[in-house]
Amino acid sequence: MDITLLKFTAVLYILATGSFIVYVFYLRDSVSRLSPLILFLGFLIHTAALGLHFFQSGYAGVNELREAVSFYNWLMVAVYLLIQLKYRLTVLGAIIALLAFLMTLAGFAFGESSGELPPGLRIYWLPFHVTLAFLGNAVFALAFGVSLIYLLQERQLKHKRMSALMKLFPSLEALDRLNYILLVWGFPLMTLGILTGSMWAGIHWGNYWSWDPRQISSGIAWLFYGTLLHGRITAGLRGRKAALLTMVGFVVVIGYFLWGDSIFPSRHAGRFE
Q: Count of alpha carbons within 13 Å of 273, Cβ hemisphere only?
């Protein structure tokens, strides 16, 4: 049943994507209000799918890679909807809705869940660790979208070609500030995700750091975002360069999350065990 709900979720996410794109081209106020509502409806059904999985299986859906992708996707949409309440970045929804749809399809591509949780994973640290880590990455997904809008806005200003849509964008200063705020929130969440992951590794594997490829990649991502945030705080890193680095960081993180284990076999591969 949760698979059926996820299929409905995918349909609503693609409908939301289409609605956001219509807004981008036609700038209708009615569409600007409708698009987040469609995305929110998809989020509600997605929530129901995750809840149904929990009640049917007795554990949070973060064990299989398919489940993890779905949970990460859910967090990403949730963070966008919260940001939309304050900043009204409707155009950002076009990026997030498309990402949500593509990640829902990616979740289907990873196959069915086994439906059984190994005894070694029946500890509270696993969902706690995954939630913190994924929440940090979800915030970075929003930072990616904001950075993309920043670059589009800057390009239009540079070439003195301001479309009606670009005039509705926040200023470059506001976008740069929002990017910084997202990094400030995302980095501590990523840090907590790594720390709780190390605790889980100590409980489950007997050692807190085993130089597993997934641990190494997480450490590299942590250093990258930490250096980027440090540069923003102390060295005045901002603007175009900060936006580009933010986008590079997210592409690398999400790329390894989806395909890294198939290239560098890890204990996390396929199942978080």
A: 11
Tell me how far apart the terminal alpha carbons of the chain are, to the nearest angstrom: 25
271 pLDDT exceeds 80?
no
- Number of Cβ within 10 Å of residue 11's Cβ equals 14
Cβ-based neighbour number of residue 105 at 10 Å: 13
pLDDT at 251 over 80: yes
Full-model pTM: 0.82
Cβ–Cβ under 8 Å, residues 149 and 157? no
Domain positions in the chain: 1-63+88-117, 120-273
Contacts for 18 with CB less than 8 Å, ≥ 6 apart: none
Task: Output the six-digit token pair for 223.
Answer: 């250093």
Instruction: Confirm if 190 and 136 have CB atoms less than 8 A apart.
Output: yes
DSSP per residue, the chain: -HHHHHHHHHHHHHHHHHHHHHHHHH--HHHHHHHHHHHHHHHHHHHHHHHHHHHHHSS-S-SBHHHHHHHHHHHHHHHHHHHHHHH--HHHHHHHHHHHHHHHHHHHHT----S---GGG-STHHHHHHHHHHHHHHHHHHHHHHHHHHHHHHHHHHTT---HHHHHSPPHHHHHHHHHHHHHHHHHHHHHHHHHHHHHHHHHTS-S----HHHHHHHHHHHHHHHHHHHHHHS---HHHHHHHHHHHHHHHHHHHHHHHHHS--TTSSB--
- The string of pLDDT tens digits covering residues 103-139 is 888 777 765 555 555 555 556 667 777 888 889 989 9
Q: Taking 70 as the threshold, does the pLDDT of residue 260 lie above it?
A: no
| Nearest alpha-carbon partner for 82 in 27, 136, 40 | 40
